[in-house]
Amino acid sequence: MVGFSIMKVLFILVLALSFCASAFAQSDFQEMLDAARAFDQAAADKGTKPAYLEFLADDSTIFRPGAVNGKEFWNSRKDSAAERLVRNISYTDIAANGLLGYTTGSWQLYPNGQKNPATKFGQYVTVWEKRGDKFRATLDIVITHDQMPISDTKAILPTNGIKDMNERGWSPADASMNFLRASMTNEELSGAYKKFAADDVRLLRDREPPIIGKKRVVEETRHYKSVSFPRKVALFQSADMAYTWNPCKFENSNEGTEEGNCLHIWKLRDKKWWIVLGVFAPIANEMKPQLKTKYKGKDTKQ
Fold this sequence. Notes:
- By secondary structure, this protein is of the alpha+beta class.
- Helix content is 28%, strand content 40%.
- The chain folds into two domains: 12-145, Nuclear Transport Factor 2, Chain: A, CATH 3.10.450.50; 173-282, Nuclear Transport Factor 2, Chain: A (Roll).
- Strands 7, 8, 9, 10, 11, 12 and 13 form a seven-stranded mixed β-sheet that branches. Strands 2-1-6-5-4-3 form a six-stranded mixed β-sheet.
- Helix 1 (2-45) packs antiparallel against helix 2 (48-55), helix 4 packs antiparallel against helix 5 (188-196) and helix 5 runs antiparallel to helix 6 (214-220).
């Protein structure tokens, strides 16, 4: 009876700890969502620059087009007081320990205020970290569209309820490196996503609504192959969530070579790290194309 009572107490204690961890995660999730919504409201009411300066962390990263410090960029930029940014959250998630999360959705830019038409559109991903008692945006990346993108879902906590405190300390480093290597092989980028993408993965690309689901992501990336292993890869992990970003360069069999910035959000599920969100934000090639013609057996550039 004593042994049974001890086992019963331990079981109840485990349930209590699990409930507390879940309650904290829910509370932190709501705090992060409130911070994201406050940022969106500030951008619409006060302007783009004031909103970013208020909610970005001092060591935040944005891409203009390369990786730069977000606070320094917005401090040095002169913006029109009338400029307004309208963002709508479509999906969000947070780590099991409530310290790292992200929001993603659509954006519209009104350079002359919302009484005038929007001129730029796109999708965004913002990474949030809890710093002290507040959530701060530590990374922000955007892609652009020709018109208003489709918002696919409302902002909700994922319903699968899978949370892993990662007490064994599983690292996403090997998974992320193997993904990058796989994208350079004959399997190409689609093969890398086939191995490492979660079934509910989301992929953001210019001029495309969010590509949702592993099957679609594999199909949409079948023409891409990494040209070289990136010189720089940044990785940050907290419990069962991590993100990586790096400069990336692809050979596209349909359009030639493309380069830009790549972001991946990883989640630990069943002892394996999976990509749940990917972003490819291309850098525009401003070099004018050089046409070649042959004249008397020689190549001539025009």
